[in-house]
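WARN no homologs supplied; continuing
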Amino acid sequence: MAKNKNEEEPAGNEEVTTSANAPAEIQKINAIRDIIFGHEMEDYEQQFNEVKDLIADNEQRIIDNKEDILQRMDALQDQFNNALRSLENRMNDEIEKLQFEKTDRKMLGTLLEEIGKKIKA
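OK structure emitted
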């Protein structure tokens, strides 16, 4: 069924908003909102702005804290590496000292055999 030129659109969309009417309608809506909500809207807007500022401040603090934590972690990593190197050096020194001081079992066995042969002879 095709529409005739004389047929009208359904009554649901009687008023069509054009771009020329939009600013005037927005002003009317804003005026109604101000009448209904009045001072509360200003309070809400102020509270929202305060919350936005707090969020921005917290984000900056988080970034600063993150950088500080990373620097501290690097310093701790360096301290740990230095302590580990120092411990490793001390252990190597002790191992060398023990190897120098201790008598090798094979060498001791050989010496005892030679002493035993000399006693028999």
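Residues 33 and 41 are 8 Å apart (CA to CA).
OK
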